[in-house]
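Protein entry
_____________
===
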Amino acid sequence: MSPMSDAGVRTPGANAVDFEERVDFRRLHEYRLARARAALERSELGALVCFDLNNIRYITSTAIGEWTRDKLSRYVVLARGAEPVLWDFGSAAVHHRLYSPWIEPENSRAAVTTMRGAVGPEAGLADLAAAEIVDVLRQAGVAGMPVGIDLIDAPTIFALQRAGVEVRDGQQVMLDARQLKSADEIMLLSRAAAMVDGAYQQLAEQLKPGVRENDMVALVNDILYRMGSDDVESVNAVSGERCVPHPHNFSDRMIRPGEQAFFDVMHAFNGYRTCYYRCFSVGYSTPAQRDAYKRAREWMDSAIALVKPGVSTDEVARLWPTAEEIGLAGEREAFGLEFGHGLGLALHERPIISRLNSLEHPMEIEEGMVFALETYCPASDGHSAARIEEEIVVTANGPKVITLFPAQELFVTNAY
């Protein structure tokens, strides 16, 4: 990727037009497939067999719905020197032959799936799937080489092993490929974040005593789907005494005056995801809440200021408090609170930044990475807490924040 200035991080309109260059989806497909091929070539593998929907989309630029997320009913083989071969759910394969011309028609096939074991072993479907995969490997001339797998069910991996396939970890290869984002990917990530900017505006207007956490979750889902979201993966809504410890969910709790509430919006636009916290006080704020927010913001700002190509992730992690400093017994309990994680087609890509893994196993921050940084600080009152998250694009000139709803100071909604 060529050096990217701050001006290169754009938020274009969602529709194709003739008067601006916006996201070029064929360019996006070519970039992603080339990255996957290059990562495969650097590995010891002869091919990748991917069941992870994010990897399938990265390689093939196909998607058929969020309902397939946990079913392991789609898979693709990318072999060295060969075109991707996609097995998709039933008639979706026919749809691709009509509407996805970048896939050779003969390479769009109906899947053989056990539906995570719901079709019993006696039907022999896992062995049939393995035989078809091995045939593709043989035609590509890589049948004797190890094969990388990302996600798979037990019957299918056993069937591949019975067919003589040496199985290795393919997820690491795909994460290598997906680590650096193209300008098209960054535009999609920025657009996804802009949609959450708007959702937070409407949430802030509606967040008042008497509403429930689930009311706010419903509001955000409605707004984002109307804006064109592919998938609202999750909305965390946490208020009052539920802020400590952070439960990472939502409930039907009713919000009261003077309470803190924080939210995390995780959704996708054309597959590219957000992880975007904002924290509010409802009606008025207290000194304890303001102090906790100030500390969380300082931890955030110090981390953002450090981000640039060449910095190591352990340097970022060391800026954040230890688990004990935020009232937890160890870094496993604190994992995900003082935290950084890559964003792309998945919610958690590289780099993962935390005291649990980064101090002893750091990685270098590179231009083209996009990641979220998260901080959390419990308040001295014992029940409030501040939670902040920003999404960062790493440019040649340093960090570019793409999460723009105000967060420098504690936001008080519907102030009295």
Remarks:
- The first strand starts at residue 47 and ends at 50.
- The mean pLDDT is 96.
- The CA atoms of residues 60 and 102 lie 8 Å apart.
- Residues 183-413 form a domain with the Creatine Amidinohydrolase fold (CATH 3.90.230.10).
